[in-house]
Write a structure and sequence with these properties.
mainly alpha, two-stranded antiparallel sheet
Length: about 100
Amino acid sequence: MRPPERERGVPSDSERASPVLSENEEVTLRRVAFGQSEVRAMRAEDLARLRRLRLIEDGKDSRPQLTADGRKCFDALPRPMTLSELKGADDFLGAMAKPVDRTRR
C-alpha cells in the first residue's frame, strides 16, 4: 500500500493552486523565469521546493524552466514600479517611503 501523497512530499491541490513562497523562493522563481542565472548560482533548497510544488521543471538543456503553474505564480508576483508610472519626484519619494505590502499577490 502506497503512503498518502502528503507523506510522499507531494503538495496538495490547494498548495499548488496558491503556494506561499518565501522571499528567497520568489527571487529564485524570478531567476528561473528570466533564465539569467546558472543553476549553481541559485539556492538548491529553493529549487527543490519549487520543483516539489511543480512550479519549475528541468528543460531540454537541464536548466530549470517554469511550468504552466510556475508561469501563473510568476505573473502573480508583485512587480517593481516603473518610472513612467510616477508623475514626479514627490510620487517617487512617496512610493519609496511606503512599506511593501507582501500580502498582496
